[in-house]
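Thread: Modeling a multi-component assembly for a lab meeting

Hi all, long-time lurker, first post. My supervisor asked me to bring a structural picture of a complex we are working on to next week's group meeting, and I have zero experience with this. I have the sequence lines for every component (414 residues in total). Could someone generate the structure of the whole assembly? Inputs are pasted exactly as I received them:
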Amino acid sequence: MNTAELIANLSTDLKPVRVAHRPLRTALLTFVVYCAFAATTLAVLGAREMTTVRFPHFWLGEVAILVVLLATSIYSAITLRYPAAEHSHPWRPVIAVLSAWGVYLLAGMITIATKHGIHELIPVDGISCAGSVFALCLIPAATLLVVIKRGYPTAPAWTTFSIMIAAGSVAVLGIEFHCTYENAAHHLSYHLGPVLLLAAAGLAWGRRALKHAPPKTSFTTPGSSDTLQAPTRS
Amino acid sequence: MPTESDRDLRWSTYMRKAQGGDASAYEELLKDLVSPLTTYFGRRGIDPHHAEDLAQETLLAVHRARHTYLPERPFSPWLFAIARNKLFDFMRERSGARTATVFEEDVDFETLPAATPIGSFSLLKSAVATLSSKQREVLGLLRLKGLSIRAVAEQLGITESDVKVTAHRAHRALEEKLGT
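Re: Modeling a multi-component assembly
Sure thing. I ran the full set together rather than chain by chain. Output:
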């Protein structure tokens, strides 16, 4: 099929479309839905007794970082679903906040170990926390993936990276209110660790997960039974 | 002499109308895009034949993604983000093409019946019958219809590497059955 035929067929195939919403609006809506998901999860799992928090400032700081991480990663994922996103590299703030979380936990680990002994450097076993993060991120990740797939992401790896960080951070946000371990090494290994694994999986599998569906392979010329094939590269 | 911003404004207006279902504006837009797209690919070292193919693929992608164009945003960055994506796909495919070529040479199904000692059609038929439906479908499209790996992948809605792996396994299974 030559280009002129293709254009004629695409024009014939044209149907009115509903223009996608602005990214910020969709991102805000997603953020609210994610927060509702975290709250529901917490209601099901049960929140810890907040008066027993040993290091409230440290805990609050981590929660604040997680909220920022959630917001930036959702905005990044939603923005990336459109070609020529409003910000050229929206995943950069996500990496910055993720790094800040790691540095914050490391600093907290050293500070707490200095005050309370070297045993604070050894992570308290938290396989259940890691398992919960992986299990809880499934629904948010799948939901956001569906939303993103309705767009046309041109940076699939970074898009799924952002999706996985968003899903992981909302899961960890819920876990933060449930997990009673206040050992910073535990948070580093079993809260941040799974999110990093999810991010790596997002980077590795993005192209496959967001592979654009093959274009419609044929167009029927009006008034004829001929079916013209979409171009295939020779 | 229209400037780039005039051109962008015109494209943006056409696309807005196209989003509303105006086929003539859409046709004008697509016709307008062919030359800049071919030039874009040509300037990146793509030969004219492939540049035209890539321009066509970009037009198809524009068609699929037209709902993602936000009318208040400039059109050119949106268009060339899609074009760049197509270019990267092409480069990636080309870098993997050598592997695919070696693989296709390796899986020479046309010589299989002749190389079979018994040379029996029924034996070949029974060997093919042991393959999964997906393997038979991939082999049929690759070897009987002579489609490229990419075309098979697009037709079946699977990845190119999936096509290669499926064909490779089918080949191995046939080799085992036919004792070649």
